[in-house]
Specification:
Layout lengths: L3 H10 L39 H11 L12 E10 L19 E9 L14 E9 L2 E8 L12 H8 L15 H9 L4 H8 L13 E2 L4 E4 L5 E10 L8 H10 L3 H12 L4 E10 L25 E10 L4 H6 L12 E2 L4 H17 L81 H9 L2 H16 L4 H14 L1 H11 L33 E5 L6 H13 L3 E6 L3 E4 L5 E4 L1 E2 L10 E4 L3 H8 L2 H12 L3 E5 L2 H7 L15 E3 L2 E4 L4 H16 L14
Parallel strand pairs: 11-12, 11-16, 12-15, 16-17, 17-19
Antiparallel strand pairs: 1-2, 1-9, 2-3, 3-4, 5-7, 6-7, 6-10, 7-8, 8-9, 13-14, 18-19
Bound molecules: CIS-heme D hydroxychlorin gamma-spirolactone 17R, 18S.
Family: Belongs to the catalase family. HPII subfamily.
Pfam family, one: Catalase_C
Cofactor: heme
Length: 704
């Protein structure tokens, strides 16, 4: 149960919540209205009158309903939740919200894509934003991260160039939410520091199955500061309890059409169901004296600290348990800012972070219309706000008293300054000497070694997906020199990668490696090593038609739901189907309203009549074949096996007569119709679903 502290933010929001049943219709100035369908006119067919204040207010308000969308990360979805540390981190930081498990801090999280507009599809190939606002007792702390641990550029001054390059091209505003176009590849191929992040972008990390199944990273090296003033470098990691899982590219493209709100809907529905998304917060801690012990610069945001070098220390857990009441008021108006920090958390001189500390405040001023955006309900800290900032558009506070300056004597010097002992923020004291200079540090100049590390760490199937992604993206590029230049860059990462991409593009592969692959790996980077031990919240399609075995459907439903999965019966029509046993089976959805790509797994139960109907139904066949193509778990029982057999799925071994359970390439089947076989098949099916996808099928064209 959330504590009073965790509920604090919701209680603060209560007075701002407006209910539609809270009295009759009024104008914005409270006058009741008896007709909102007809404007005030001179005669029934005459002109509308200027004095129709209701008409003018209603339409004028409507005319002004839009605000500028975020210049990046415009498309997103948010949720409230709670963060609780496992233990005190007092040794490293004095941040109050990290002082022990008795602290429960309310949070608001916004997940987002980066390049697309507000109305763009969720499942595009892109980085995902993972921004968390902790409403701590000491003020708001914003951890504005991404689902990749590195960034494209090293200095914030390049951000406008990068964003201009990835956004739709300026002459025709094409393509929407895609990096597969000339200007993006032109820029990154000329900017070798981007190569590491681009490799992540070409990996499956850029098409997460769910916001609940992706990691988050603070990216920069930040600094913890303890009560004695000692600093410790820190990297933040969010780890999803459900593991890190992705779609495949072709699937992601189809989902973008079938359900453009795929990730947003998934988050919303999970929270509505009570399947609260959970993330563990972990940190990598580096003592300040170890600043120069790495073969990269800790201040360089294109670098990770490999987990094998500095292990992750889990420090707490976040549970997202409440959807917003209003998308605009909360998810759209939430304003994150990297400089929203609390005592005990400080910056480093990472030039990207330094630039962000300017940009996030600046952007809210234009986006939210002025300096009072911190007073919007979602942004208000639960900590008390007292200062001499005054006035401005949309001022919500009624400041009393005669003074709005410091020092003053008229108000007894109030508000008084806090001492560090009373919780004032004290910037970490770091000695900095130098000449003014517009130059990148030499220590930022290695752009390839960590890209090679990432590549080396990938499983074979991940490498295949990466090569296919480069081929796809560069295949859309019309300037041959951009393709060639990119291949040349890839040759610095790995010769085999460059060669494979070149071959797909019809570009001459580089004759020799540009350097020697160092051969190092970091297993933590591979999604193949992510936890795969649960079927919780996985969607499973059970295909059925008249004559389906109700007993088998019942076993499937019961066992899969028991493991936390979400089985749904899909049939050629909604309503119900007749069962083989003479009763009926309720249908959750008509097959035509959904798609195979919207499920994690598909199964076909028995019943001769049902199997015959499905085997002759193009859509049902497509459900099975597409799931197979996308590496998903499949199961077939009794006569349902014939539906799979009829598809002649390449190289697939299916159960024959006799009822024995056969498992091959992530497909489990048994022709036996009995309860024992059903139980055995469903148990095996659950294991296969938990493993997310099954690569290397004989027909593996999942990457195309
Ligand atoms: Fe952002 N970024 N960013 N960014 N960013 C914005 O702020 C910016 C960067 C990130 O859900 C903007 O309120 C600069 C890295 C997230 O509301 C803007 C630079 C990381 C979100 C901005 C970066 C991020 C933003 C646009 C380079 C991961 C969405 C609207 C120096 C660590 C937050 C807004 C939300 C949003 C600037 C680079 C994450 C313009 C100048 C690195 C998750 O201020």
């Amino acid at each position: 149960m959330p504590t009073d502290e965790a509920r604090g933010k919701q209680e603060q929001l209560d007075p701002s919540r407006a209910r539609p049943d809270d009295g009759p219709l009024t104008t914005n100035f409270g006058t009741r209205v008896d007709d909102t369908d007809n404007s005030l006119k001179v005669g029934e067919r005459g002109p509308t009158l200027l004095e129709d204040f209701h008409f003018r207010e209603k339409v004028t308000h409507f005319d002004h309903e839009r605000i500028p969308e975020r210049v990046v990360h415009a498309r997103g979805a948010g949720a409230y939740g709670v963060f609780r540390p496992y233990e005190s981190l007092a040794e490293y930081t004095k941040a109050d919200f990290l002082q022990g498990p008795d602290r429960e801090t309310p949070v608001f999280v916004r997940f987002s894509t980066v390049a697309g507009s507000r109305g763009s599809a969720d499942t595009v190939r892109d980085v995902r934003g993972f921004a968390t606002k902790f409403y701590t007792r000491e003020g708001n702390y914003d951890l504005v991260g991404n689902n990749f641990p590195v960034f494209f550029i090293q200095d914030a001054i390049k951000f406008p160039d990068f964003v201009h390059a990835v956004k739709p091209e300026p002459d025709n505003e094409i393509p929407q939410a895609q990096s597969a176009h000339d200007t993006f590849w032109d820029f990154v191929s000329l900017q070798p520091e981007s190569m590491h992040m681009v490799l992540w972008l070409m990996s499956d990390r850029s098409i997460p199955r769910s916001y609940r199944m992706m990691q988050g990273f603070g990216v920069h090296t930040f600094r913890f500061v303890n009560a004695e003033g000692r600093g410790t470098f820190v990297k933040f990691h969010w780890r999803p309890v459900l593991g890190t899982h992705s779609l495949v590219w072709e699937e992601a493209q189809v989902v973008a059409g079938k359900d453009p709100d795929y990730n947003r809907r998934d988050l919303w529905e999970a929270i509505e169901r009570g399947d609260y998304p959970e993330f563990e917060l972990a940190v990598q801690l580096v003592p300040e004296e170890d600043e120069f012990r790495f073969d990269f610069d800790l201040l360089d945001p294109t670098k990770i600290i490999p987990e094998e070098t500095v292990p992750l220390r889990p420090i707490g857990r976040m549970v997202l348990d409440k959807n917003p009441d209003n998308f605009f008021a909360e998810t759209e108006q939430v304003a994150f800012h990297t400089a929203h920090v609390v005592p005990g958390i400080d910056f480093t001189n990472d030039p990207l972070l330094q630039g962000r500390n300017h940009s996030y405040l600046d952007t809210q001023l234009i986006r939210l219309g002025g300096p009072n955006f911190e007073q919007l309900p979602v942004n208000r800290p639960v900590a008390k706000v007292t200062n001499n900032q005054r006035d401005g558009y949309g001022q919500q506070r009624v400041h009393t008293g005669r003074t709005s300056y410091a020092p003053n004597s008229i108000s007894g010097g109030c508000p008084v300054l806090a001492s560090p002992d009373a919780g004032a923020y004290v910037h970490h004291q770091e000695r900095v000497d130098g000449v003014k200079i517009r130059k990148r540090s030499e220590s930022f100049s290695d752009h390839y070694r960590q890209a090679t590390l990432f590549w080396n760490s990938m499983a074979d199937w991940e490498k295949e997906h990466i090569v296919a992604a480069y081929r796809f993206e560069l295949g859309k590029v019309t300037h041959p020199e951009i393709r060639e230049r990119t291949v040349e860059r890839l040759n610095h990462i790995d010769h085999a990668l460059a060669t494979a991409v070149a071959e797909g593009l019809g570009v001459t592969p580089p004759a020799e490696p540009a350097g020697r692959n160092h051969g190092r790996t970091s297993p933590a980077l591979s999604q193949a090593n992510s936890p795969m031990d649960t079927i919780a919240t996985r969607r499973v399609a059970i295909l059925a038609a008249d004559g389906v075995s109700a007993d088998q459907v019942a076993v499937l439903r019961e066992k899969l739901s028991g493991g936390g999965a979400m089985p749904e019966v899909l049939a050629p029509h909604a309503g119900e189907v007749r069962s083989a046993e003479g009763g009926t089976v309720p249908v959750d959805r008509a097959m035509s309203t959904m798609a195979s790509v919207l499920y994690d797994a598909v199964c076909v139960p028995g019943g001769a009549e049902s199997a015959a109907t499905l085997g002759a139904d193009g859509l049902a066949r497509h459900y099975v074949a597409e799931a197979f193509k996308h590496g998903k778990a499949l199961a077939a029982l009794g006569e349902g096996v014939e539906v799979l057999r009829g598809l002649a799925l390449p190289g697939l071994r299916l159960a024959g007569a006799g009822g024995a359970v056969v498992e091959d390439q992530g497909v489990v089947s048994s022709t036996g119709g009995g309860a024992a076989e059903a139980e055995e098949v469903v148990a095996a099916f659950a294991d296969l679903i938990a493993r997310h996808r099954h690569w290397g099928r004989d027909s593996d064209s999942t990457v195309a």
